[in-house]
Each structure stands twice: as structure tokens, then as C-alpha cells.
# Entry
Amino acid sequence: MNEDRLSDYLDHMRQAATDACAFVEGLAKDDFLEDKRTHQAVVMSLVIIGEAATKVMDGYAEFTQMHTEVPWRSMRGMRNRIAHGYFDINLDVVWDTVQTALPALLQQLSAIHGWRSQGGTQAKDDQQTD
# Structure
């Protein structure tokens, strides 16, 4: 597969996670739960993340095996639950995801970006010793 597509998928994930975090910035949970526009925007961001994760899993299995710290299956699973059960979305889970899982994902994606820009597995090994 085209290596450039992998970077695109990772960039889509990073942008969607950044967007979702920005959408809830400064909001209390109760305010989020009352704001349909914001929860729909966050949910769409989660769908984008899950779709990109699925593309990475399907097209770059070796890459996902090298980066097991990233919750690929969980992201795909959340996307599937949202897409196939839209009217049953648990907004408490969405809130918790954007508050905890997405900041962690952004850190993981930044580490991968640093690893990729430094040229591969050697750079990853070097980062782990820091």
C-alpha cells in the first residue's frame, strides 16, 4: 500500500482527536450533556478516528503490531457502536472518552510521529529509553 496513506490516516486521527477535545474545552459535563450540537460534533470526531483506525488496521497490520500501545481495536469498536447504534449512544461514555482516552491518544500519535520522522524502529527504541 501507499505509505503516504498511512500518514494521512494518522493525521486524520490526530486532527479529529484534537477537534473533539477543543469542542468540549471549558465545558462542564452537564453543559456537554445538554448541548446537542457539541455531542454530535464529538461523536462525529470519534467516528472519524475509528474509521481511520480501521483503515490502518486493514492496510498496515505490521504497523499496528509495532504500535500496540495504541488502542486500534477499541477505536474501531467505538466507531462501529456509534454507526450501528446511533440512537443508543451513551453520552457519559463519550464524555469520558474525550476527557481521558483522546488526550492519551494524542500523546501516542505524537510519539509515533516522532518515531516515524526519525526513521523507524531504532528511533522508537531510543525514545523508550528516555
